[in-house]
Automatic annotation (TrEMBL):
GO terms for molecular function: methylglutaconyl-CoA hydratase activity. It holds the Pfam family ECH_1. It comes from Spinactinospora alkalitolerans. This is Methylglutaconyl-CoA hydratase. The lineage of its organism: Bacteria, Bacillati, Actinomycetota, Actinomycetes, Streptosporangiales. Its EC number is 4.2.1.18.
Length: 261
C-alpha cells in the first residue's frame, strides 16, 4: 500500500500564533487543488482553535507563491477532471479576509498573480526587500479577475492600473508604496519585524481584536461576495480561451507568445 503523500501545507501553533506554511517548493508553492484544500483546512483549524490569537501565512523555498498551477489547468483543459471538492480562489481569499482572527503574511520570497491575492487578503503583510511581484495574467492571455477583488482594496489606483495592465515586475519597496504590503524590510529582518507585530497582537484582548478585524472588513462584505461571483465568471471565460492556451504553451516552451512584439 503506497504511503500517504507528504502534505503541501503545514500548520503549527506556538504562543497563541498559528503558523501556516505553504510547503510545495517543487512548483514554487503554486495554488494547486490539493494545496488550496490543505490551506483551507489549516485556516479552518486555526479559526476553531481557542488558543490561537492570530495566523501567520508563509512559505518554504525561494518563492512565496507563484499563483495558479498552470500544469494542472492545462491538464483540466485536456480533459482531466478537476477536484470537485477543492475550494476555489474566491473561497480561499474569503477564508482569509473573513477569518475572525488577524492574518499576517510573512513572505519568504516573490509572489506572482494569485499568490499576490493571498498577500492582499491578509490583514498585515511583511516582505523581504529582495521580493518581487507581478500580475502576470495579461502576459499569458488571461485577466487578473478574481484577485482584483482583494488587491483593489489594498493598492492605490495609479499603481494598480500600471501593474495590472503591463504585467511588469515591481519590487517590495514599490509594493509597500502602492499599499500592497504593510512594509518591506531588509531580508534578514523579516522574522524580527514580524515577531514585533505578533507580540503586539498577543497583547490584545481576543474578543476586541476579533471585533476590530470585523470592523475593518465589514463595509465591503456584501459587495465583495458579488464581485467574487462576477469575477469568477470572467476568469473562467478567459482561462478557457485560445489566448490562455497559447499563453500556457509559450510559458512551458519558454518562448514569447504569438502576440508579443
Amino acid at each position: 500500500m503506497p504511503e500517504a503523500a507528504e502534505p503541501l501545507v503545514r500548520g503549527d501553533v506556538d504562543r497563541g500564533i498559528a503558523t501556516i506554511t505553504l510547503d510545495s517548493p517543487h512548483n514554487r508553492n503554486a495554488l494547486s487543488a490539493r494545496l488550496r484544500t490543505e490551506l483551507a483546512q489549516e485556516l479552518a483549524a486555526a479559526v476553531a482553535d481557542d488558543t490561537v490569537r492570530a495566523v501567520v501565512l508563509t512559505g518554504t523555498g525561494p518563492v512565496f507563491c507563484a499563483g495558479a498551477d498552470l500544469k494542472e489547468i492545462a491538464a483540466e483543459r485536456a480533459g482531466q477532471d478537476p477536484d470537485p471538492h477543492a475550494p476555489g480562489m474566491p473561497d480561499l481569499f474569503s477564508a482569509i479576509m473573513d477569518a475572525p482572527k488577524p492574518v499576517v503574511a510573512r513572505l519568504n520570497g516573490p509572489a506572482r498573480a494569485g499568490g499576490i491575492g493571498l498577500v492582499a487578503a491578509a490583514d498585515i503583510a511583511v516582505a523581504p526587500a529582495s521580493a518581487t511581484f507581478a500580475f502576470t495574467e495579461v502576459r499569458i492571455g488571461v485577466v487578473p479577475a478574481i484577485i482584483s477583488v482583494p488587491v483593489s482594496a489594498r493598492m492605490h489606483d495609479r499603481q494598480l492600473s500600471r501593474y495590472f495592465l503591463t504585467g511588469e515586475a515591481f519590487d517590495a519597496g514599490a509594493a509597500a508604496e502602492a499599499g500592497l504590503l504593510t512594509c518591506a524590510v531588509p531580508d534578514d529582518e523579516v522574522g524580527a519585524v514580524t515577531e514585533r507585530i505578533l507580540d503586539g497582537l498577543r497583547q490584545c484582548a481576543p474578543r476586541a481584536l476579533n471585533r476590530t478585524k470585523a470592523l475593518l472588513n465589514e463595509s465591503g462584505y456584501r459587495e465583495r461576495k458579488a464581485a467574487f461571483a462576477d469575477m469568477g465568471e470572467l476568469s473562467r471565460e478567459f482561462f478557457g480561451g485560445d489566448d490562455a492556451a497559447e499563453g500556457r504553451a509559450a510559458f512551458f516552451e519558454k518562448r514569447p507568445p504569438r502576440w508579443a512584439l
